[in-house]
Structures are given as C-alpha cells and as structure tokens.
Records
---
Amino acid sequence: MSFLRNALLCTALLAAPSGWAQSDMSDAERDALHAEIRGYLLENPEIIMEVIGILDERRALGEAAAEATLVTDNSSAIYDDGYSFVGGNPDGDITIVEFVDYQCGFCRKSHPEVRELISADGGIRLIVKELPILGPGSELASRAAISTLISEGPEAYERLNLALMTLEGQVTEASLDSALAEAGLDVATIRAGMDADEVTRRLQDTRGLAQALAISGTPTFVFGDRMVRGYVELAAMRGLVEELRATN
C-alpha cells in the first residue's frame, strides 16, 4: 500500500499546477486543490499506471545496481575460490556460476538446459557451487559430490552431478549409493571422504558466500555482474550470454 501511495503522490504532483505550494494555502484552497487533483485522476486513470510503471522501473534498476555491487565485492569468492567444479570451456570468454541443491526441483529442471547451453555454445565456463538448503538429503548429496571432486576429479564429479540431478524423488542413503554406482564410482571410497574437514570447510564457505549475496533459494545464477534468482529458460540464458558478450 505504501508503494501505491507513493505512486499516487507522484501522480498528484504531476497533475498539480506549477507553483502551487500547499503549505502556503488556506484550508479551503487546499481542499479545492485536492478535489481538482482527484477529478483529474478520475478523468485520466492511465496516468496512475504510467507513474507506477516508472517507479517499478526505477526500483528494478536500483535492485540490479545493488546486486551488481554485491557481485563485485565478492567476485574472488564467486569466480576463483579454488575448489568449486569448473566445467564447459575453462578458457571461455563467458563465465556462468550456478548455486545448486540436488533435491531442488527447479535445479533438476534447469540441469538439461544448462548442459545444452554449454554444449552448443563452446565458449562458456561453468562454475557449480554446492548449496544444500533442502534438508539432510541435500547435505548428503553435496558432501558426496564434493568428496568425489576431491578424490576422483572433475570428470567423475560431472558424472555424479548428472546422476544426482536425474534422480527421482528425495536423496536417501540407498538412492545416493545407487547414484554413485551409476556414475561408476566406488561407494566406499566416496563415503569415506564425505565427512572430511575439507568437505565441511567448502560447504561452510559457500554458505557464507550465499549469505553475503542474499541467496535464499536455488538455483541462483551469476551472469557477469548480474544475479538471476530461480529457474531460467534456455532461450533466456542464451539472451543473457549474448548481452554479456556485447558488453565485454
């Protein structure tokens, strides 16, 4: 309601004759002005929507600028933490960062579209950050993924990432073992490393980064200095990549 009141105030100021200062008016003059403004707005209601549109645009620009500042302030942790999985073209001209949770339905929906984007483009560097926020199953899956990356390397991680993202239902002890086997990994080896201090440190650091970036859900993407929260269709991702290339 406060936003609408602000919009109506701006509209009223636009409609009011120039040079009218309400503080210099008598009560009768002020009542007359208010009546005139009300009548004007009733006759021209489209002005209200126009002003609301302008305020919406300004608010969106302000939010985008604030998020760009967050990305800049945390760029090292976002793009060069030294431990997150890096896929696609490591020397690509565009870098996309994705925060994921393996139990997130929209992460699973995004996964094949992100893979298609990377495969078809050839010039994109993809960084995946483990952000388990949906309960014990999410924590289990992320620990397995990080343990795999540490002990077996990025190719094995990518296979497990695919197996977990295409898993049906919640992640359980049994379904995790199945995913590990599907990815061609030794279950005992990966599980032995899941509770290592380094795995815990990486998860804590990524959670700290997510908090700094005000990330509360997955997937969340970073395209250049722009954060995109939630599911993004393939066509929209391609558009964002084109915009990045045009400004680089």
---
Amino acid sequence: MQALSKRTQLIKKKSLFISCIVPVYNEQELIVKFISVLKTTLKQLTKNFEIIIVDDGSSDNTHNLITKLCKNKNIKALCFSRNFGKENALTAGLAYCAGDVAILIDSDFQHPIKLIYEFITKWVEGYSIVYGIQKNRQIKNPIRIYFTRLFYYLIKKISRVKIPANACDFRLLDRKVIDALNRLKERNRFMKGLYAWVGFKSIGIPFNVADRKAGKSSWNLFKLTELAITGITSFSNIPLKLLSVGGLLISGFAALCAIYIVFKTLIMGIVVPGYATILVSIIFFGGIQLFSIGIVGEYIARIFTEVKKRPNYIIEEQHGFTQKML
C-alpha cells in the first residue's frame, strides 16, 4: 500500500521520472516528427523525463538528425558502431536509463503513443510490467502468420516461462524490473522471454497496430526465424530431450526389425533384400541424423557465443549524457 501511495503522489506532483527508450534503424523520414509527438505526450505526464534514442547502426541520415535532436536537454542518444540488432539496442537503452520507469516504444508510429497514459495508470495500480498486446498484427504473408502462431504455440508448450502470445516490445518497466534485466549478461538475448523470466506483477493491454507512416520494416522472414530459434533455445532444452527420446524409439524399432528378419530368415530362408527398401532406410535415417546434429549445433553455437564474452554492442557516440558511460 505504501508503494502504491508513493506512485500516486509522483503522478499528482508530476515528479515521476520517465525514461523512454526508442530503438531506431534507418528512420530518417519519421524520427523528428515522432520525437516531437512523444515529447509533447511526456510533458503532459511529468516534468522529469528523458528520451534515449538508440541508433542501431543506421546507414541513412538518421544519425545526423538524432545529433541535432540531442541539443534538447531531455533527448539523449546512443549510436552503435554498426548494426547489432533491436534486442541489443533495447539492452543498451535499459542499461543507460535513469528513470523510475522505462517505456520501450518503436519510432514508426505503429505503437500508439497515447497508450502511455494507460500504461502509467496500470503502474499506479501496482503493476511492475505493463505490455502491449497486438490485436491486429500487420502481417500479410500467410507463411509468416502460420510460423508466428506455431512459434507461440511451441514456446507455450516447451518453456516453463510463460511468454504472452502477440505481446510486443512496447511496454512499461518499473525500476526494479530494469535493474533485474540489467543483471542478465547473456549474449543470445530474446527480450520477450527475459521480460517474462524476471517475473514481477504484469498485465497486458490490447491495442490496434497502426500502419507505418513511412518506410518499411527491416524484419524479414530470415531475421524472425533466427529470433524464434534464439527464443526456443534460450528458454527450453526440450528439443535436446526429444532427440534422446527419438533415438530410443528408433533404436527400439530397429531392434524389432532385426528380430523379425531373424525369424523370417529361419522360417523362409534367405531372401534377396529389396533395393528400394535399403535406399529409403538410408535416406530416412541419414536425414534424422543430420536434423539431430543441426539441433545440437544450434545449442553449441550459442554456448560458443556465450563463452567468448564479447560485448552485446559497441557504442561509437553518446549524446546528451552528463558523463561518458561504458
């Protein structure tokens, strides 16, 4: 109750410190307008806020526009030395933010800025994580729709961490959640899973995804597949266990076939084996072996990445921060 009273007082006094983390990649057409709208919204909520723009190695004029925006004291920027991916951009923003709460939001206007008011309301009610749930995913490719549903179905079945379906990165995080996430040093980061893994009281708010105001998404089927594999391998070892069970089943089937062949040979004598049967068996079991090695290889590759202990990102420039941070 005391914590809830403190949250209410922060809102009433407009002294709540809000950090907005905005990952961007080639958003020169939208970034200036978006930051202007976001800044206006935050001013209505509090006197204390910061907008941290994380430039994920943009190759257009985004970097120059961000540098100019940082002349405003409320706007800060982290510029990566190259493209490290959205998961790492969010990680950097959380590491550098100083707010009582952090709001993660994309700069393409697909996340409704006005929903921040509702996020804050739920935070005042006592929720530590408030996340947006996409009601109308802007996906026209039927293959992508199918694999998206398949991913959430699989992750629900094989992972002990409950990751809400269609939850997006658009969310509010309390300070204690931010601190918990900053303690996680893994290199293969699946942020939606990490939000769920740290726990805390959470609630989802459905919203309609708006059309992009300009440009196009940099997420293609390959990147989404790679992210899905990271999510599955980071939060479940069920695929490895299934390989063990599958190996036992196949071995058992092979033993039964051997027994059958022995008895058949004793009763009917030696029969010339069929070429097609041998060929199909070789191809089938060869495919099973390659598939199994591939799954094991995914886990080994991620172990390899972790043990190298390379940083998740490299910051080339910082703007708006009072002191240089590592």
